[in-house]
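Anyone? Bumping this.
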Amino acid sequence: MPDTVLGDVIKRLTEYAKGILSHDFQAEPIRISPDPYNINELSSAIEQLATEYRESLLRAEETVWRQAIAERQMEEMLLYETSILNNMADGLVAINQNGIIDIFNPAFLSMFNLSDREIAGREYNEIFAADLTSLIEKGMSGEKGTIKGEISLANGRIGRVIVNPILNDEFLGSVVLVHDITKEKEIDNMKTDFISTVSHELRTPLTSVLGFAKIIKRRLNDDIFPQVKTEDKKIQKAINQVEGNIGIIISEGERLTKLINDVLDIAKMEAGKIEWKKEALSIGEIIERAATATYALFEQKGLRLVKDIEDGLPEIIGDRDRLIQVIINLISNAVKFTDKGSVTCTAKRSGDQIVVSVIDTGRGIAKEDTLKVFEKFKQVGEVLTDKPAGTGLGLPICKQIVEHHGGRIWVESELGKGSVFSFALPVPSETGISMEAIDKDIFIRQLREHITAAPQPNISGKTILAVDDDPNIREFLRQELEAVGYRVNEASDGIEAINMIKKERPDLILLDIMMPKMNGFDVAAVIKSDPATMDIPIIILSIIEDKERGYRIGVDKYLTKPVNTDELLHEIETLISKGASKKKVLVVDEDETTIKTLSEALAIKGYNVVSACNGSECIVRAKTEMPDVIIMDSIISDYDNIVKTLKFEKGLENVLFILLGKGKR
Amino acid sequence: MAVQVLDAKGLKCPQPTLKITAMAVKMKPGDVLEVTADCSTFEKDVRDWCTRSKKILLWIKDDGGVKKCQIQF
């Protein structure tokens, strides 16, 4: 090949290569013929290089493209999630594992009136108030379960807080949700107020109706009817009718009272307004209490109560009074529907539950009614022949109580074959010791302990029943009491005591607690639950310190042994004379009819009555009239301020305060 | 009609067009991207890119030794 042709070819190759360098990928490769120096091969090689170069550029472009798309998707997701946070109604804040405030939303800031500058990157315990801080602390400490609480928000609002750990194989911090419940609380308070008001409004006129009806009955029987001496059959008939009618009014009034109480009870339970107590309880002991309280029912019908309580049953946590209420209810029902034979109460462990059953040999319940019995106001039986004896709310209330304790209640029965009512309560896995809520009634009685009426000894002819299993104690009491002029009867155990009370009603009972067969508390309970004996004053003398239980049953005074004789005599005088002398009573109530009813009832008992209709008038009257006793409706606000105020008045230090009804307090 | 600006001066091929690719993800239809680059193969690359991505090259000009163009998305 001549030089000039070769030179030309090389020039063309160079142009080709340069074209590729400047990204002219469309350039045609060089092809020559003849090709003595294999220029075509070089040209092909360059062409391949170009192709590969171009392809790697395109691949790079595709990679960049994919990456950019992925980034954009992540950005959009982040934007979306941020929008969710920004538009949430609840406040949210995330604290990282070092306690630093990481993420929060506008709702959170506004709930606490904070700005993001103030909290971003700061430690939570530097910024948040103590109530929120302590909840977060619990969450950060790895405490198991969801942590909930209520805290104060800005502008007097209230929030509910839930703290959860942020977990992702490892602990990453805590997330806090805050929900504004101010409105909810308001509605809650309205509900409470409504229930209290309705309760008060319904009971007040009923108190008058029943009260006056009873007074009328007494006046008719004591003062009027005896004066009517006539052979006239018509008048006789009229008298009988009036007597009967008044009796019906009273019993229906009492039934109405019970109905109102039950309705309010269940309304309160359903509204979550009941203050449930929590304490460790022994089922056996509760059953004993219920048995004691229903003793009279069995006696009346000549039935037996058989108890079969398994040994070694574990304790459960619950509200003692309410559970006793359940068992009493079941036993009462059993007695109601059984005409002869016995009622059995059993308690046994079944897995992680304790099952209590009340078995009767009564007429049974039809299968289709076994669920209905737990519905409100459904009483089963023949509509036309069976008069409803109860309120139809007993079992629904039991259901509420049992279910509140995490249990279940049911009945197995067949018509004609009796029924088995059972409820199961869970056994707690660890028995915790919990604080008992302070019972208002107990508080009132203890309050009374500080205020004693001035004693006016009037001993002659008064009988005291001394109950103690120790003959020496009985002898001691007999001597001390007879020395000052009292008549003394003795009983060595609870059963004997109850029988003696029935035979001869004492003016006061001195009661020991530790006694065989039936302990003193149970005796007191029986006495206090029987209308015929409930107003006999009881003084408990015991070595056991359990004042609250005593007051809960309703004893008047609780003295621990060894007892000072002078103190004992003083207390006896006080309690006995309360019924005898012409004491002055100040009645305070907003409702005029209530004042009238109470005044009449007190006057019959021999008291001198004055009245006031509100707190300030009460104070004024008390100062001028110097009463021995002040009876107040507990809805009158600031009652304990009134008590404090009056106690400091000269001459009123020993005034006895009696509060009526269960008001807001 | 937003005009985004991409300064690819000092970047050697293939970086300018890769950057255009990355920005393309964020462009919405109707947006315009103005690119400035001084890479020698830029004009060819950008034309090629527009052909492949089916976008319109509005114009390309020389601006004192530096190439400037606008791509319509």
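Late reply, but here is one note on the structure posted above: Residues 431-457 of chain A have pLDDT under 50 and may be disordered.
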